[in-house]
Design a protein that fits this description.
The chain is mainly α. The protein has helices spanning about 5-15, 20-45, 55-75, 80-90, 95-110, 110-120, 120-145. It has one domain (about 5-45, about 50-145). Helix 1 packs across helix 7, helix 2 runs antiparallel to helix 3 and helix 5 runs antiparallel to helix 7 (about 120-145).
Length: about 140
Amino acid sequence: MLNSNVSDKIHSIISSILTSDILEKWKSFMEDHSSEFLEDEKNQISDSSKFSLNSTTLYNEFSSIIEERFSKVIVSYDMTEDEFYKACSETTDEDELVSTFLEILNISLNFQLFVDVMRDEAKRAWMFSMLDIWSRKISESEAKT
């Protein structure tokens, strides 16, 4: 169990990562490029495990956006990425907000899951509605402290 200072720090880091501007940037990126993933899907009826070079390039670009944002914020809180992820993993059983954050991070940084979300408008809408709800909950919990 983490002490409340570390838990508060994790919440602050996550809310600093998931600001409305970065969520809008992610959403715009995904919407702007979703048609390219749909085109891949149409062209690969017989083998869904193959993807175009462009899909891989777009995934790498999206991952870089996320990783750059995370790195800057985590460092600004005097933590390493390893310390941050270790603290998050230690609190997931007791903190639904952190658990949800890690699930969405996994979707965003796992190529196959990312492709699946990019090919399905409803999944993208779900992902961003969860991020919006989650971001509001973090803001509310910070306002109470």
